[in-house]
Amino acid sequence: MKLALDIKEFTEDRLAAWLKDQGLEPYRAVQILRWIYLHQTDTFEEMTDLGKELRKLLSNHFTISRLAKAKIETSQDGSRKYLFRLEDGKHVESVLIPEKEHYTLCISSQVGCAQGCRFCLTAKGGFVRNLSKGEIVAQVRDIANHLDDAKRLTNIVLMGMGEPLANYRNVIEAVKTLTDSDTGLGFSSRKITISTAGLVPRLADLGRESTVNLAISLNATDNETRSMLMPINRKYPIETLLDACAEYPLLPRRRITFEYVLIKGVNDSRQDAERLAGLLRPIRAKINLIPFNAYEGCGFERPQEASIQTFRNILVQKNYTVIIRHSKGQDISAACGQLSGQYDA
Ligand code: SAH
Which domain holds residue 258? Predict the structure, then answer.
């Protein structure tokens, strides 16, 4: 049996072209997409401003699918991990993080990951496949639909499973739907962040094609350490990466976020903090320090609280904005770098 195509994989242009091919009015695409994203509609039957014939034709050709929620876990601190089962039986995770005024949703861009970062649990299972545009958007659409207070969901970070820039096209198309206020989910691009391990050739493309925020996972201040932690550094070493960042087109008042996972005895010395301050000098930067989140068999440790503070203070003295990300959801393995998509039930 051939599976019907999920209509959410279509862009507005492609849907309009499809309608035209059927001898129908292309502007219907706008109506259809508004039903799907603004009204969270699940069936073509409910699209009452479309003719009966068109609704039938759409039902015959397309599905409006949702991701199956294989498991939902809520942490003591209020964050919530969603494990989704995809059409082909693979799994990905998304994490909803309550903040003071809003929710931030951390979504995945791939099943597994090919980057092989030594400290990251997602890396352990290797790369499985890219998520489609529809699967990326569906994490947001379905979780918004699951919330009583969906209005509070304002921020999205692509910091879940996978390397967003290694799935560039689908991520860009997904961002278009997430930010489209007419026929999409209407998020502000200021509130969306793409985080990358540093796929340098894609940075220029991203800067040209979108105005979302950029976060770079730097994680070390010398090439030897960074290459050990993040194999991608052998291809695009620190200087190359930071040159690309210095040239990245930033909107006024925007900065690039540099993420730095603090690992005891590996990258957490005073010298590291000082080198980091020097390296970022030419860039409009802010810094997120993420104390390492341990998991079974990881082989790394989180530094003592005092050395985390020392590291931070050095950067603050050098006039950087520094946020320490004490990750939420540790009791449900939903913290940074703990997502595995493993499903054994
Ligand atoms: N591939 C992208 C996005 C996913 S990782 C990237 O590399 O940016 C999101 C962030 O989690 C990265 O900054 C990464 O360095 C961090 N991270 C991975 N494993 C971690 C762990 N065990 N503890 C703390 N942070 C981790």
Answer: 68-332
